[in-house]
TrEMBL record:
Primary site of residence: membrane
Compartments (UniProt record): Endomembrane system
UniProt protein name: Cellulose synthase like G2, ARABIDOPSIS THALIANA CELLULOSE SYNTHASE LIKE G2
One MF annotation (Gene Ontology) recorded for this entry: cellulose synthase (UDP-forming) activity
Annotated organism of origin: Hibiscus trionum
GO biological process per UniProt: cell wall organization; cellulose biosynthetic process
Amino acid sequence: MEKSLPLHLLHANKFTIIINRAHAILHFIAILFLLHYRLSTSIPTLPWLLIFASELLMSLSWLISQSFRWRPVNRTVFPDRLPTDGELPTIDVFICTADPNKEPTVEVMNTVISAVAMDYPPEKLHVYVSDDAGSDATLRCTKEAWNFARCWVPFCRRYGIVTACPDIYFSSSEDDYREFKGFEFKAEREKMEQKYEVLKQRLRIIVQHRDVALNTNARDHPSIIEVINEYTETQEDEAKMPLLVYVSREKRPSHHHNFKAGALNVLLRISAVMSNSPYILVLDCDMYCNDPTSARQTMCYYCDPQTSSSIAFVQFPQTFRNIRENDIYDGQIRSTFKIYWPGIDGVGGPILSGTNYYIRREALLGNFRKEEDLMALKRSFGPSNDFIKTLAEDHKPNFIHDGESSRMLVEKAKVLASCSYENQTTWGSKVGFMYFCVLEDYFTGFTLHSKGWKSVYIDPKRPQFLGTSTTNFNDMSIQWTRWTSGLVSVAISRFCPLIYGLAKMSLVQLMCYSELAVDPLLHCLSLWGFALVPQLCLLNGIHLYPKVSDPNFNIFLIIFVSAISKSLYEIVVTTGGELRTWRNEMRIWMMKSVTCYTYGTLDAILNKLGMKEASFLPTNKVTYDEQVKLYEKGVFDFRAATMFVAPMVTVILVNIAAFVGGFVRVLVGDDGDGYWEKMAGQILLSFYILVSNYAVIEGMVLRRDKASIPLPVTFLSAVFSVFILLIGSYVLC
Ligand SMILES: O=c1ccn([C@@H]2O[C@H](COP(=O)(O)OP(=O)(O)O[C@H]3O[C@H](CO)[C@@H](O)[C@H](O)[C@H]3O)[C@@H](O)[C@H]2O)c(=O)[nH]1
Ligand SMILES: [Mn+2]
């Protein structure tokens, strides 16, 4: 009976697998022909070497990326088959915020409220807010949010509200209250809406009046920990609420704080002495819970004795509420969450993605069933006996709201949040979240997988979490530069997945990890090659591709068409996107390659050489109406740092020069040596680059609005391109 019904199912997408593998074989054969052609027909010259290198790197990156297409799967869960509430394990929720200027407090509080309102037994849920800005305003706002939640949570429970994030609930028109449409509900809803308006008003006032002087101390302040529930007098008949704790770890300029991973490790310790839940949900401050059932969905894996012990984390996709149909910056990161993660889920489990995951505490800290040597534990975990005790299996701390004992607990917690606590321990290197690179998620997930843990990817129809994605060029570029830097720093370290992961994971999963790590490096090198070398050669009359009449020309044509049709197939058929999505992704990929991928790679290299410190600039989550309008119209906002715009414009100018030069010679100067025949490949390549990036030409020449490309940037780029044309021609020819 009950027992025989599974809690979850896994389906391999057989049809997609067949298509993927068949395409991979054909495309691979075409690449072999290309290699054969390159090695057999040309005399090695510098241009030949460069273009061949670009082709090799691109092919290599294609080859490794097939790992994500090897065995895509999807999963179904059956939360109604879970054991009774009494048997469910407890959960700690970690919400990180770092900068009230970039992370609007109203949104952060919405995330907190939506987490408190999750559909889970309240006594089994504990929410921790980590404030890396140490902002007094955020603390006060958290208390206000708590007061609102005391009415909001019972309201949601009573009427079965699915959208438990007030901001989304009150701004969407959808009927979320199913059978309760009566008068009573309407009146209650109105009351709640008013309360929410009052809350927003109060939060704004607190933020406006926040003590700017205090705030400048974000990098220098003691730990501040407060249990928020204690500020409210619980009435007898009041609904039970989860525990809510505000944490701001100690910060001193003399101590490196290790960014988000540092904050998470502090929360790991503090939550251990307060609630010590075996599972932890990690959320970025902008990631609202859009559906209260994610915890129950997750428990379908953690409550299944067959799978439970091997799973380190259950990952949900990152989904965003500010994405429009015409997503010009690919803010939804479609290929990652729709193609890559289901792909790697079939071969060992998805990569940890920073937010929206339920991780097992034991996977981060280890399990200590037997008596361990106390000194050894202290060397690893730091001096706190209270914390060490929590490592033992089944240790349940007793959190009592009785003034004195909870005050003592908070004092103990403050020690755990001090910036010197981790000195001479293995926090961040062996235990907890890893500090090795700014991409704490990727690297922590990688270490877990290489220890033999598995992970699971659930992508339900209704997005479980909704965040804010970058929808302007500058923010997107900063974010991708950080990601690239993190990934490349792993690729060029001793942890390079290709070497480090060998023999520790399945080969295909290892290739997936490697793909992500080396992809920016391979793409920035090869795209710079394709963007400049054929063009310089075109202007200097050197041909790099076979003549149109040569059957070998078909090799290039086939590779080009095959790559494009496969990505079109994935976008339109597999993920139900539009043709426009394909254009957007192609274009932004080209743009990112010559900017973010390049800078991120340089950043990682400088970092490795000790010439630059790693940095984590939190992504800006404040949106301006004007910017949003541009994004909604699908118009690029080029008001970005010159370093992000100039390389793009330079590439476009070089391509214009090459294309015009080549085209004119085709038209007027046909000197009988079959110029077009020889140069068609290069002329068409330039044409393709220009057509794909028409938006840049438009921003440079046709647009005159504030968000177009500024004239000085165009001039600077023109100087760069003339320089490239002169030097390039000199060197290459
Ligand atoms: O010193 C820091 C820096 C950041 N954060 C928080 O970390 C979260 C993620 O930062 P965000 O600026 O939103 O970065 P994104 O680029 O959007 O984040 C992606 O990439 C990060 C790694 O680079 C992951 O940590 C994130 O989970 C993932 O969503 C936010 O809640 C921040 O408040 C901190 O708590 N402390
Ligand atoms: Mn973010």
